[in-house]
Amino acid sequence: MADRDPIEHLISLLSRIPGLGRRSARRAALRMLMRPQEAMLPLAQALEAAARAVRPCESCGNLDAQSPCGICRDPRRDRHLVCVVEGVADLWALERAHAHQGLYHVLGGVLSPLAGVGPEDLSISPLLARIAAEGVEEVILALPATVDGTATAHYVTDRLKPAEVAVTRLAQGVPMGGALDVLDEGTLAAALRSRRPA
Amino acid sequence: MADRDPIEHLISLLSRIPGLGRRSARRAALRMLMRPQEAMLPLAQALEAAARAVRPCESCGNLDAQSPCGICRDPRRDRHLVCVVEGVADLWALERAHAHQGLYHVLGGVLSPLAGVGPEDLSISPLLARIAAEGVEEVILALPATVDGTATAHYVTDRLKPAEVAVTRLAQGVPMGGALDVLDEGTLAAALRSRRPA
Ligand SMILES: [Zn+2]
Ligand SMILES: [Zn+2]
Predict the structure, then answer these.
(1) In chain B, N or C terminus with fewer CB closer than 10 Å?
(2) By residue range, what is the domain housing residue B82?
(3) Is A95 part of any domain?
(4) A13 at the B interface (CB within 8 A)?
(5) What is the pTM of this model?
(6) B97: confidence class by pLDDT, cuts 50, 70, 90
(7) SMART domains, per this entry (chains A, B) (predicted)?
(8) In this structure, what CATH number is given to the domain that contains residue A74?
(9) B46–chain A nearest CA distance, Å
């Protein structure tokens, strides 16, 4: 093994963490190496445990240590109300805002001709199946206010027509072109409260 | 185990990494959870391997997977020239600058009456022992240009007087009040080249 191998290898993996550059990764490694028992082994164990336990929820697509996920299993949630999100980051953002009392459905993306994402890449058929099987009464489209997100909302609305379910979307408070998961919690809660027919 | 426990635990440990806030930790966790095999298990293994292997060098105090460290074992280094640094971060910064061909000695801090750091907390006796045992001819004091760093340089210079070794310090290019490990490599190299008697 070369001289500084384990340290250099650690720095190089740390620098791949989104938000940490090479310089920050080096400092983080050094700080952790000064107290390996407290700073390194617990993180190693947490990474392993999460990698082993966490999987997508078979029902909604959320990431959780159990499937169906904690939200889908929660008897206090309104099962007639399903909020459709692009991805898990947006689901977590809405949860942090305590803005939604129903269930979720993770679409797994938005339609994007440029990125080659078509309807078959999104979790739309499973959504239709859930609506039919679970007595869903309202679907809230909480998609990003981008061109692709808006086009996706229109497309999903069309696909949901035969299901005879109310389809609403986030309205007030979502800035144009903005991603959901960077919004403050009040903005998210307001947008959800003032949702309107799609 | 509670609903989102492994994920929340991971986020909370990631948010303790210097440079990552809570929001960045959450995003990093989510991105890693989407590809656990590629992003999480290798990092877990690297953390464990580094925590197990890395220790302070018994000779100079550098952190390395072997002791004596790779620098102390390197036959191409000039063993008559020892550069004294406050900590390992500064040693690594000088190594990145390829500015020093000799060995190092990590002092483990600087004198600080406010922080309660006295001479007995610094690795000065081991430095004197090294000078006596290893035929050191010059000690370069590469300490921070702060009040505490300058006082420490004076103190170490006094302690080294009986050893009859040349004592120099970094001069040109180190800005007042600046930490060494944030300086660019050219500045570090210039400061080392233009070192002068302490
Ligand atoms: Zn679920
Ligand atoms: Zn060493």
Answers:
(1) N
(2) 63-197
(3) yes
(4) yes
(5) 0.78
(6) confident
(7) TOPRIM
(8) 3.40.1360.10
(9) 5
